[in-house]
Amino acid sequence: MSTTDDIRTWMPPFRPQFPTLKFLRFRQGGSAAYAILRGERVRQIRGSIFDQYEETKGLHWISRVKLLCPCEPPKIFAVGRNYRSHIKDKKPPENPEIFFKPISALQNPGDPIVIPRGAKNVHFEGELVAVIGKTAKKISPSKAKDVIFGVTCGNDVSERDWQIGSQRDLQWWRAKGADTFAPVGPLIVRDLDYSDLLLQTRVNGQVVQEQRTSDLIFDLPTIVSWISQFVTLTPGDLIFTGTLGETCKIKPSDLVEVEIEGLGVLRNPVVSEDGA
């Protein structure tokens, strides 16, 4: 997102039933910082959003700063086959199907999704993303809510030929892990009932995905608990929770938007690595 973009095009609408805290990361000049969104301004904070922090005197208009990925995750997990509308007539998995995306796949709000050389079938996947706030190991689903710091928007960009087609690899390291294949943001929102939010993906303004998060096969606490049985979760870890319905190919010059109720709009243009 350029600094000239109108904040109202990505900010979540004001909803009195959502008494939430909204965190973000931004860059102004050469330095990056965390902040709390207060109306159309960001209040810079000092310390860790996952531990202790204090608000500073730094106050900026949101339209004059560069938005970054809202946190710096140690790990990125993702869930496959987690909406019945996506798996269709296939049997749902017995447990959440987890895979990793590399940290280098992260992309900021407003910055481009880059289609790599040789990629012919890159798809969008709009998703709700959980942000972990506490270290968690072998926790129950009933306690998992306590370690979820907040939620944000994500796009699990995927090259289908490399994932399941004739050029598929042993693992999804490039199909879902190529540079820029994990746009996230623009906000981390706390104290929000993420169990029933409207998720909508648009390409060039046309709605291509729309469903509520209440339709997830495995909800967030179940996913967090399952992962924690085998891999210790740490503050800042991200968990993409799965995409819905149909996905389709994106191409250079497209604009992909993932909007989730109360979380704002994650907007990324699409470009080609070779400039085509």
Give the ordered list of helices and strands.
EEEEEEHEEEEEHEEHEEEHEEE
- Provide the CATH top-level class: Alpha Beta
CATH homolog superfamily: Fumarylacetoacetase-like, C-terminal domain
Total beta strands: 19
Q: In DSSP terms, counting alpha (H) and pi (I) runs of 4 or more, how many helices?
A: 4
Q: Which percent range fits the helix content?
A: under 10%
- Total separate domains: 1
The CATH topology label is Fumarylacetoacetate hydrolase, domain 2
Average pLDDT level:
93
Instruction: Determine the strand fraction and express it as a percent band.
Output: 35-45%
C-alpha end-to-end distance: 22 Å
Main beta sheet: 12 strands, mixed
- CATH architecture annotation name: Alpha-Beta Complex
* Integer-rounded radius of gyration: 18 Å
Which stretches are poorly predicted, pLDDT < 50 over at least 5 residues? 1-5, 14-18
- As an assembly, this protein is single chain
The shape, in one word, is globular
Q: Which class of secondary structure composition applies to the elements? A: mainly beta
Features:
39% strand; single chain; 5-stranded mixed β-sheet; Fumarylacetoacetate hydrolase, domain 2; globular; 4 helices; 12-stranded mixed β-sheet
Could you describe the 3D structure shown?
The protein is mainly beta and 276 residues long. The chain has a single domain (71-272), classed as Fumarylacetoacetase-like, C-terminal domain (Fumarylacetoacetate hydrolase, domain 2). 8% of the residues lie in helices and 39% in strands. It contains four helices and 19 strands. It has helices spanning 84-87, 141-144, 160-163, 220-228; strands spanning 21-28, 31-38, 41-47, 53-61, 66-68, 76-80, 97-101, 106-107, 113-115, 122-123, 126-132, 148-155, 158-159, 182-190, 198-203, 206-212, 238-240, 255-260, 264-272. The strands form three sheets. Strands 1, 2, 3, 4, 5, 6, 7, 8, 11, 12, 14 and 17 form a twelve-stranded mixed sheet that branches. Strands 9-19-18-15-16 form a five-stranded mixed sheet, with no helix packed on it. A two-stranded antiparallel sheet has the order 10-13. It is globular, with a radius of gyration of 18 Å. Residues 1-5 and 14-18 have low confidence and may be disordered.
